[in-house]
Amino acid sequence: MAERREENRACAAAAAAEVRCLAGEGMKSVDALLLRVRDRESSQDRFVFYVDRAIKLVVEVALGELATEKKTVVTPTGAQVDGYDFARPVAAVSILRSGDAFMQAFNACMPGSPTGKLLVAKHAGSELQVLYSKLPKNLASCSVLLMDPLLATGSTMIKSLQVLTGEYGVDPQHITVLCLISCPAGIKNVQEAFPQVRIITAAVDAGLNKEHFISPGLGSFGDRYFGTR
């Protein structure tokens, strides 16, 4: 119960900071999925299944917040219908390796949309470096979803945002960060560095433990999702 109260307080703080936390919005399906994702007894197959379902919800919510414009189409009956479509092309960038867990959901929702990948890590004890990048050339004209399941300290996310805004000219207001689980420290650090960037997360946990894992968290996402140790 204490951990649940901490999670609720963290979600409330996130809401005050203009971060959308799905677990704080009464979405019972998200709560049920996250409980199974967190359970250390969940097999890899079950973990992947529940993660994929939760991620799909996060992606759908993020797409629902993007800017739209009016558009008219003609139906097979010859009638005209007014509606709305995305105002800008939508692109997705995953932060390797764990961010690739989001790609299946994004491609299912937005088939044919541009995608890219970034690998950010410390090399030989140095500061964070971009070790690999493969990004669409037209990112500056897109609404960009930047995806990583866990937002802990925020350092990897900030480095990735620096690449998108500095090297590819993406306006921060057109970037949405997508996470499964975040913590207040990571959110704070990202927002201080990029206050215009929107963050959408399934849950906000209390903080980091002494091993720098998000707590209560879900352990090592990459190991559990990809079946590695």
Descriptive keywords:
globular, Rossmann fold, eight-stranded mixed sheet, alpha/beta, 229 residues, 28% strand, 36% helix
Can you put this structure into words, describing what you see?
Keywords: Allosteric enzyme, Glycosyltransferase, GTP-binding, Nucleotide-binding, Transferase. InterPro entries: PRTase-like (IPR029057), PRTase_dom (IPR000836). It comes from Hondaea fermentalgiana. Its EC number is 2.4.2.9. The chain contains seven helices and twelve strands. By secondary structure, the chain is an alpha/beta fold. Strands 1, 4, 5, 6, 7, 8, 9 and 10 form an eight-stranded mixed sheet that branches. A two-stranded antiparallel sheet has the order 2-3. A two-stranded antiparallel ribbon has the order 11-12. Helix 5 links the parallel strand 8 (150-151) and strand 9. Helix 2 runs antiparallel to helix 3 (44-64) and helix 3 packs across helix 4 (103-109). The mean pLDDT is 91.
